[in-house]
Design a protein that fits this description.
By secondary structure, this protein is an alpha+beta fold. It has seven helices and 21 strands. The strands form five sheets. The protein has a six-stranded antiparallel beta barrel.
C-alpha cells in the first residue's frame, strides 16, 4: 500500500517584503502617470493658440499740442541819443533796471543846460544882428573878398579831411561795439546751454565772461580813446565851420556891395539856416530840461551814459526794451512746421507763471540751428504781460495746433507702421490680420482714425513679440 505524500504547509509572507512589493507597484504607477502627462502635454501644446486682448474703437476728443521752448524778447525797443553836447548831471538807472513809463532815466547838468540855452538864444540874436549889420555895411567887406576866398578854400579842405577822419573813427567805434555785442550774444547763448547746471565751472566761467564783456562794452579803452578823438575833431570841425561861416558871411558881404537880388537871397538863406539850428537847439533843450524819461514800461538793456561826461551830439545814451509788448521766439522743425499757423492759441510759461499768447508770425525762411538742422522761426505774442516777465529768459510754450471732437480714436500705442503705411491688428475668424488705417491728428495718448475703422470695431490692444499676421490666436474682448 502506497503511502500518501504529505502536503507542504504555506508560510505567511514576510511583512517587510510585502511593503517593498507595494512600494514598487506605487512607484511604477506614478512613473507611468508622469510619462503619460508629459506625452499628453506635448500633444496638447501643439494645439494651443496665443491669447490676445482686443478693445473696441470708440469716439472721443483729440487735441494736438506742439510743446517746445523759446526766448522771451521785446516787440518794442527805443534808443535815446544825445541831442546836445551838454554835461550829464545825474544818471538814475543802470543796465538791467526795470522802469515805468515817465520815470526819469538821466538828466543834464542844470547850469550847463542853462548856458547852452543862453548860447542858442544869443546865437539867434547874433544872426539877426549880423543880417542887419551886413545889409548896412556891405561895402566894408569888398576889400576882404580875396582873403575870404582863400580862407574858404582852406577851411573846406580842412573840414572835409576832418569829417572823413571822424567817419573812420566812428566806423571803428561801431565795428568794435558790434564785435563786443556779438561776443556778448554768443556768450549768452552758451550760458543757455549750461543753465541746467548752474553750479558747474563752465556756467560760472560763462557768467564771469559775460560780466567782463558787459563792462568792456561800456568801458572799452579803444572806444573811449576813439570817442575822445572824435570829440576833439568835431570841436575842430565846429570851429572850422564857424570860421567858414564867418568867411562866407564876409565873402557874401563883399560880393553884395551892390546888394543885388542874388546876394540878398543868399544872406537871407544863411540867416534862416542859423535860425533853424538855434531853434532846434532850444527845442532840444526844452525837451530834456526835466530829464530824459522812459516812453513806456520796460527794462534798460544798454547804458552808455556816464555821470559828469559830455557826450557828442548823436551819441547813443540808453536803450529801453518794452515789457508791455513782449513776444517769445521759438524754432520749429520741418516735422512741426505744417502744424503751426498764425492765430493759434499758445500757453506760455515764464518763471512759473502762465500767460496767454498767440502765434503772430511764421518766418518765410529757414535757418540752421546748432545741430545743423533746418528750423523756422516763429514768434508768439504774449497778450497779458505783467511785471513777472523777464526779457531774455527761457519760456516754455504749448501751441494748441488742432482739435478734433467726437472723432474715432484709438490709443496711440496700437498704431503700427510699415513700408505700406499705418495699420492696426485685429482678429478675424481666429486669425491675426492687419487693418490699414489713415490717421489724423494725435495727442500724447490718442490718435484720430480718419479711414479704415468703424466705431465698435474690435482691435488688438496688446500685440506681443513673436506674433505675426496670419497666426491663429485666441481673442479675449475688452470693453
Amino acid at each position: 500500500m502506497k503511502e500518501k505524500k504529505e502536503k507542504k504547509e504555506k508560510t505567511p509572507m514576510d511583512k517587510a517584503r510585502k511593503k517593498k512589493i507595494i512600494k514598487r507597484s506605487i512607484f511604477g504607477v506614478l512613473a507611468a502617470l508622469i510619462i503619460l502627462f508629459i506625452v499628453m502635454n506635448k500633444i496638447a501644446a501643439q494645439n494651443i493658440t496665443p491669447v490676445v486682448y482686443t478693445m473696441p474703437v470708440s469716439r472721443g476728443d483729440v487735441e494736438q499740442i506742439v510743446s517746445t521752448s523759446g526766448t522771451v524778447k521785446t516787440e518794442e525797443s527805443k534808443s535815446y541819443f544825445a541831442p546836445l553836447a551838454v554835461k550829464v548831471g545825474t544818471v538814475d538807472v543802470a543796465a538791467g533796471d526795470s522802469v515805468k513809463k515817465g520815470q526819469r532815466l538821466y538828466a543834464y547838468d542844470e547850469d550847463a543846460l542853462a548856458d547852452e540855452k543862453l548860447l542858442a538864444e544869443l546865437k539867434m540874436q547874433s544872426n539877426e544882428g549880423e543880417y542887419e549889420s551886413t545889409m548896412i555895411k556891405n561895402n566894408k567887406y569888398i576889400s576882404e573878398l580875396g582873403e575870404a576866398n582863400i580862407n574858404l578854400e582852406v577851411l573846406d579842405q580842412q573840414i572835409e579831411d576832418c569829417e572823413n577822419y571822424v567817419k573812420e573813427l566812428n566806423q571803428k567805434i561801431t565795428d568794435k561795439q558790434d564785435s563786443l555785442a556779438k561776443e556778448g550774444a554768443l556768450l549768452q547763448i552758451s550760458l543757455l546751454d549750461w543753465q541746467n547746471d548752474p553750479g558747474s565751472e563752465e556756467y560760472m566761467n560763462l557768467q564771469k565772461m559775460i560780466q567782463l564783456n558787459t563792462y568792456e562794452q561800456q568801458h572799452n579803452d579803444e572806444i573811449e580813446m576813439w570817442q575822445a578823438e572824435v570829440k576833439e575833431y568835431e570841436e575842430k570841425i565846429a570851429a572850422y565851420k564857424e570860421y567858414r561861416s564867418e568867411m562866407k558871411s564876409q565873402k557874401s558881404s563883399s560880393e553884395s556891395g551892390s546888394l543885388n537880388s542874388g546876394s540878398k537871397d543868399k544872406l537871407v538863406a544863411d540867416t534862416q539856416i542859423e535860425k533853424i539850428n538855434a531853434e532846434e537847439t532850444l527845442s532840444s533843450i526844452e525837451e530834456v530840461e526835466g530829464g530824459v524819461v522812459a516812453d513806456f514800461d520796460g527794462v534798460i538793456t544798454e547804458m552808455s551814459v556816464v555821470e559828469g561826461s559830455t557826450p557828442t551830439v548823436g551819441t547813443q545814451m540808453v536803450t529801453l526794451e518794452s515789457t508791455e509788448k513782449v513776444k517769445v521766439e521759438i524754432s520749429v522743425s520741418k516735422y512741426d512746421l505744417q502744424k503751426i499757423a498764425v492765430g493759434q492759441e499758445v500757453d506760455v510759461t515764464i518763471a512759473g507763471n502762465v500767460y496767454q499768447g498767440k502765434v503772430s508770425k511764421v518766418n518765410g525762411m529757414a535757418t540752421t540751428n546748432n545741430s545743423g538742422a533746418a528750423v523756422v522761426g516763429v514768434e508768439i505774442k504774449i497778450e497779458n504781460p505783467d511785471s513777472g516777465i523777464f526779457l531774455g529768459v527761457e519760456a516754455k510754450v504749448a501751441v494748441h495746433t488742432d482739435v478734433a471732437e467726437q472723432t474715432l480714436v484709438v490709443p496711440i500705442e496700437v498704431i503700427n507702421s510699415d513700408q505700406e503705411g499705418s495699420f492696426v491688428y485685429a482678429v478675424e475668424n481666429g486669425i491675426l490680420v492687419k487693418k490699414r488705417v489713415v490717421t489724423g491728428i494725435s495727442s500724447n495718448t490718442l490718435c484720430e482714425i480718419v479711414e479704415g475703422l468703424n466705431e465698435g470695431d474690435q482691435i488688438v490692444s496688446n500685440v506681443m513679440m513673436g506674433l505675426e499676421e496670419g497666426m491663429a490666436v485666441t481673442a479675449i474682448a475688452g470693453e
